[in-house]
Design a protein that fits this description.
Keywords: Flavoprotein, FMN, Oxidoreductase. InterPro entries: Aldolase_TIM, Alpha-hydoxy_acid_DH_FMN, FMN-dep_DH, FMN_HAD, FMN_hydac_DH_AS. The structure is a single chain. The protein has one domain (about 10-380): TIM Barrel, CATH 3.20.20. Helix content is about 40%, strand content about 15%. The protein has 16 helices and twelve strands. Strands 4-11-10-9-8-7-6-5 form an eight-stranded parallel β-sheet. A two-stranded antiparallel ribbon has the order 1-12. Helix 2 runs parallel beside helix 3 (about 90-100), helix 2 packs parallel to helix 16 (about 330-360) and helix 15 (about 310-320) crosses helix 16. The longest helix has about 30 residues, at about 330-360. The model is unreliable at about 185-200 and about 200-210 (pLDDT under 50). The structure holds flavin mononucleotide.
């Protein structure tokens, strides 16, 4: 439920999928597509495909090996991996599992600058090459599935391991236990959870129930564009904003000097009724400023929310994305089959992409990326 559920009536989740069905690929015949390449260059690094592993937190609730599964699978298949701040393993453990694989770190921006700086340092020291700042999750979305079951994994002590293992955090709050066996832990089926179920807004906004250490370990504050300067000044590598859904914000991102954006609505888990992510991509790519910035390599554009098949990837690329993040599909692979399950989902996705690309008469991604109506058409 926690993985599959989205905000509200799942309307945005469904819209994400339906948006792909509103486009059709136009296949070309008598093209020799025997030799094909899925190679993709992002921030100067060439990858064997345009697929990244999306950051997904709290994986210990799904599989005992948690984030280790996708980290190892990513390394085995040469796929870039993005680690969430809401992970249930530490930055260091996951880096070790990912070895000399290629990885990024996704930041849920802590409340204080010293903890933030410490996370950035740990990410850099452990070879996470880019920083992805997720902007759409300053509190959790209104998710009826989780409200009905009164389920917030963080309130059980899961998904706060990156924060809790931080030396600056530890110096301030002391070592905190990994599970909900803490004597002060607020989890109580008839108390706090009832507050959540009753829609107690104070309780939801203050997700961590007044426990300062828990808030610091993993909790967002509303920020503004000027706050980004702090990250820009303190992170040398590429800075990428995740959760962009409007032309306005994409152009602002450019103005504030970020290197990339991920057009995403968090798989429909945050704003119920938000527009499908593919439509957001289409709107953003109509901006001449964004298009020019992409062409001059000033701004890199990635996409997620709803990617399930090879043809979905072709459509997102044709609309202007340079790479995509795969989310729930690999998580389901991990739940069912651990590392092997993640690998199988990734292999199938790439094989489907490669096969569909060839059958549609293309040999490499430069023939489709940003090519719009040469490749796809909107169905009426
Ligand atoms: C269970 C779950 C946990 C997630 N956790 C995070 C997270 O910690 N950080 C983040 O930036 N995005 C998180 N996401 C969003 C994904 O990165 C991605 O945007 C989303 O899964 C895309 O939608 P799709 O999986 O339906 O294609 C999470 C998504 C799911 C399903």
């Amino acid at each position: 439920m926690y993985a599959g559920g989205s905000a509200g009536t799942n309307s945005t989740y469904r819209a994400n999928r339906q948006a792909f069905e509103k486009y059709g690929i136009i296949p070309r015949m008598l093209v020799n597509a025997t030799t094909r390449s899925l190679e993709t260059k992002i921030f100067g690094v060439t990858h064997s495909s345009p697929v990244f592993i999306a950051p997904i937190g709290v994986q210990a609730i799904f599989h005992p090996e948690a984030e280790i599964n996708p980290a190892k699978a990513a390394k085995a298949l040469g796929i870039p991996f993005i680690l969430s701040t809401a992970a249930s393993r530490t930055i260091e453990e996951v880096a070790e599992a990912n070895g000399d694989g290629y990885r990024w770190f996704q930041l849920y921006w802590p409340r204080t600058n010293d903890v933030t700086l410490s996370l950035l340092k740990r990410a850099k020291d452990n070879n996470y090459k880019a920083l992805v700042v997720t902007l759409d999750t300053m509190s959790l979305g209104w998710r009826p599935h989780d409200l009905e079951t009164a389920y917030i994994p963080f309130a059980h002590g899961w998904g706060v391991q990156v924060g809790k293992s931080d030396p600056v955090f530890m110096a301030r709050y002391g070592k905190q236990p990994v599970t909900d066996e803490h004597p002060d832990f607020p989890y109580n089926p008839t108390g706090i959870d009832k507050g959540i179920m009753d829609g107690d807004l104070k309780c939801r906004e203050d997700t961590f129930f007044g426990m300062e250490w828990l808030k610091e370990a993993n909790s967002g504050l509303y920020r503004d564009w000027n706050d980004l300067k702090f990250l820009r000044e303190n992170w040398e590598g590429p800075l990428v904003l995740k959760g962009i859904q409007s032309v306005h914000d994409a152009e602002k991102a450019l103005e504030y000097g970020v290197d990339g954006i991920i057009v995403s609505n968090h798989g429909g888990r945050q704003v119920d009724g938000a527009i499908p992510s593919l439509l957001a991509l289409e709107m953003i790519m109509k901006s001449p400023k964004i298009k020019a910035a992409q062409q001059s390599e000033k701004l890199t554009i990635l996409f997620d929310s709803g990617i399930r098949t090879g043809s979905d990837i072709i459509k997102a690329l044709a609309l202007g994305a340079q790479a995509v993040l795969l989310g729930r599909p690999w998580l389901y692979g991990s739940i069912v089959g651990g590392q092997a399950g993640v690998e199988q989902v990734l292999r199938h996705t790439l094989a489907d992409l490669d096969n569909t690309l060839g059958l549609a008469g293309f040999t490499n991604l430069s023939e489709i990326q940003g090519k719009g109506e040469d490749v796809i058409v909107k169905l009426t």
